[in-house]
Amino acid sequence: MSSENVLEIRDLATYFFLRRGVVKAVDGVSLSLRRGEILGLVGESGCGKSVTALSIMRLLPRSTARTVRGEVCLGGENILARSQREMREIRGRRISMILQDPQTSLNPVFSVGEQLREAIFKRTRQRKAEIMKEAVGLLRRVEIAAPDQRIGQFPHQLSGGMKQRVVGAISISGQPEVLIADEPTTALDATIQLQYLKLLKRLQSETDMAILFITHDFGVVARMCNRVAVMYAGRIVECGPVAQILERPSHPYTQALIASVPKLADATGKLTTIDGQPPSLMNLPPGCRFAPRCAHADPRCRSIYPSTFTAGVDHTADCWRLEGQ
Amino acid sequence: MSGFIARRLLQGLVVLVLVATVVFFLGRLTGNPADLMLPEDATAEDRQRLIEALGLDGSLFKQFVAFISSALKGDLGTSLRMRQPAIDVFLSRLPNTLAIIPWALLLAMVVGIPLGVVAALHRGRLLDRAAGTIAVLGIATPSFWLGIVLIFLFSVELGWLPSGRMGGPEHYVLPVITLGAFLTAGFMRLTRSSMLEVLESEYVKLARIKGLSESVVIWKHCLRNALIPVLTLWGVFVGNLITGAIVTETVFAWPGVGRLTYEAVIYRDFPLLQAIIILKAILILTINLVVDILYAYVDPRIRVN
Amino acid sequence: MRSTPWICILVIVTMVFMAVFAPLLTPYSPIDQTLRDKLLPPFWLEGGSMKYLLGTDAFGRDILSRLLYGARVSLIVATLALTAGGGVGLVIGIVAGYLGGTVESILMRLVDAAFTFPAILFALLLAVTMGQGLGTLVIAISLLLWASFARVIRGEVLALKQRDFVALAKVRGCSEPRIMLTHILPNVLSTFMVLVTLNIGVVVIAEASLSFLGAGIPPPTPSWGLMVSEGRGRIADAWWVSLIPGLAITALVLSVNVFGDWLRDRLDPRLRQL
Fold first, then answer.
1. What pLDDT score was predicted for residue C271?
2. C-alpha A31 chain-centroid distance
3. How distant is the Cα of C51 from the closest Cα of chain B, in angstroms?
4. What is the pLDDT of residue B34?
5. Rounded mean pLDDT of chain A?
6. Strand, coil or helix: what is A210?
7. Which residue range(s) make up the domain with A60?
8. A168 domain-assigned
9. Among partner residues B209, B213, B299, which is closest to A97 by beta-carbon distance?
10. What is the mean pLDDT of residues B42-66?
11. Does A289 fall in a domain?
């Protein structure tokens, strides 16, 4: 695994400008994704994970949302500065995305083959026969049985797991450098989830593609990711190698998250929940955003946002308690 | 698929029988329709003659049986005024109506659907509001008045277009606009609301993720789905056009079945009117059947059921 | 739309006012003919005068007076037809929705059939066989309305059926007609009212169209549709006879539709499908 950064996000901020106020969905997020690694982005619903993904892809709803600052560097150059037309070249080819709900991701009136053909045709102007051969090949790669038959079928004739595999096939068809997977298994049956995760891991090892894996489930992170970034109320609060974070979580929120996952919690089998609610993204507190729910918070936590401190090798967390360690 | 067609055919037949029954009973609801058609100085013999001519003698049940059996033989009564079989009169005028209906439908689609798409894309802004205003006016304006206004403007004042009767292409312009106005407004509103829903879909997001150009996303992915509700209502639309033709043809003195209906009402030609209703029912039901088959073709989800 | 449509409300109120107080407002009788004064233009055109503000028709009747009385006709027919047609639709919707089973199947099939076939034709048939008149007209227009009311109300009732207070009533031993009357009916009334407002425009245009075709209230009673029809032949030299009543129809229907949409958005946005 080389340490070259294929995707670098610096101080990204995306706000939603609504009638009743400004929602700071993403408020200063910095991440780096290395070639060939799987970086987990984990947090509760509403913490800004999906908005981060959409900001990278520049697919935010234009009427209400805007990325107000920051840089997203793909292979060294800032794609936020590119035009929409240039982004269309980048999407599908260099960055791709898998959406959460397979039931609604595929267009119901077009066949599987047609939806794949569109993606492939964009990349190579081959003849239809060649393209369809490639499409069948892609279906095989995502482990769909009898791909020749599936090509002509329509989405409603496929199960949820199969649909998500088709979505996976579409997303890798352009041979992207970066794949953003936005909660790809959340809507799947529990039995299918594991299979899908294994598929993703296999695809990734074959292609050396980097994956930004968005999820709310730390258990999945433990299984899938090399590194993980924990997100809370629009900011990254901790980031580092998965093994290290599981062993020694430094940020109180990360600790609480891990403690609430049944398989990862301590041997006493106690399942703790986190008291309270995340803050409203329209009305953020001045200091650390987790302070209202944190057992260790002191007045400085509540008034000044913590700086980033080192918690280990390649491991950082934004918490005043780490100061001076 | 053939099972689907068979089912829809059966449904259509049931509706047809229902319509025929309703027509029959509505016609004989209050006493004897013959009384309404007689001039004031008619004698009792005249009345009896008319009753027999109209087949209104005998018990209701006997009349109904006679009605159905002759209908099945292709005899739907004789027009009082023209003294010809009603079916022949209808069929002779039908081509004239069929000449304008497709144009009105085309107008509605070519103007209404793109307007609806544009309105949805520019939601809340000037274009949307302008299109919305046009649509709302199109729905509120009674078509008989619209036709008269158009005649006044383009025929009387400006003299550009003829004020009625069938003829060359210039005779088609105003009737088609009048007939299609209401439908155009309807198409625009329906397409707009349908598009707005579709634009929020996940598969549209996926299409953008694939890097497809915006026009492909809108016109291929969105529109195809947005038009599905429009298609389901096509049968209703054509039904509306056929009845709308009554007023339009009257205003423009267009010799079609719409005007024929008007004449039947004005001259109280009861048998003709009865026949017209049943024949129009057959026409509308046939078109609905064709539309349903087309719909199953466009939306693959229906076929499997 | 968020802001209250004041202009529409003003138009509606004005027309209702015109209709209710017509006899007090009109200087002339709407049916008296003064052939000497026939086909005079409205006051703002050459040849017009303040004597007949909106001009006269081919029989010398004052257009303004006829317009005001015509508003009465529209109002009365609309009220009666909405009550009758809406009422029938309401009852059928409640019965079908609540009782379910075979009753519902049959009734809903009838509703589907009614939607397939345009009812205006039945209305015309009625005019020929029952004779022109208020009763015929009201029945005819009711035929247009009942099916859409029935369908929507039945949908509402299906949802209401599941609610707890209905189960409680059943447990208490209420009979079915009683439940339908005292529990279901009050809860669908707001939807019913919204449907009524949305359909006023339909009724006004239906009445006008039927009158135009000679199947409405017989002359000499003025109705707007009839006025448009009468003025048709003189469109070249006396356009006001046809155009002014038609403008009134359009203005009323426009206002009622916009107001109805606004009301629906505020009270029951689920009905947006209509």
1. 61
2. 11
3. 26
4. 65
5. 87
6. strand
7. 5-94+215-322
8. no
9. B209
10. 73
11. yes
Provide the shortest C-alpha distance from residue C225 to chain B (in Å).
Answer: 9
Residue C90 has pLDDT above 70, yes or no: yes
DSSP character string of B77-110: -B-TTT-SBHHHHHHHHHHHHHHHHHHHHHHIII
CATH of the domain at C234: 1.10.3720.10
Note the pTM of the prediction, 2 decimals: 0.79
* Kind plus residue range of the DSSP H or E element containing B29: none
Rounded Cα gap, residues C41 and C10, in angstroms: 27
Subunit contact A104:B202, Cβ cutoff 8 A = yes
pLDDT tens readout for residues B62-102? 777 777 787 777 777 777 777 888 888 899 999 999 999 99
**Residue C123 located in a structural domain:** yes
CB-facing half-sphere around the CA of C106: CA atoms within 13 A: 6
Residue B103 Cα distances to B106, B141, B176, C148, angstroms: 5, 20, 6, 29
Q: How far apart are CA A136 and CA A147, in angstroms?
A: 6
Q: Using CA atoms, how far apart are residues C145 and A71, in angstroms rounded to an integer? A: 60
Enclosing domain of residue C148: 7-19+41-272
Note whether C touches A: 3 CB pairs or more under 8 A.
Answer: no
* Cross-sheet strand order for the sheet of A38-42: A95-98, A178-182, A210-215, A38-42, A227-232, A235-241, A315-317, A309-312
Q: How far is CA B154 from the centre of its chain?
A: 26
Asked whether residue C29 is domain-assigned, the answer is no
Number of domains in chain C: 1
CATH code (residue A35) = 3.40.50.300
Whether the per-residue pLDDT at B154 is higher than 60: the answer is yes
Name the domain count of chain A.
1
Looking at residue A101, the DSSP 8-state letter turns out to be: -
- C-alpha triplet A184, A185, A186: angle, nearest 5°: 100
> What integer pLDDT is reported at residue A2 of this predicted model?
47
- A137 occurs within a structural domain: no
Please list every residue in chain A whose beta carbon sits closer than 8 Å to the beta carbon of residue B205.
Answer: 59, 99, 105
The H helix count followed by the E strand count for chain C is 11, 0
CA distance B264 to B249: 13
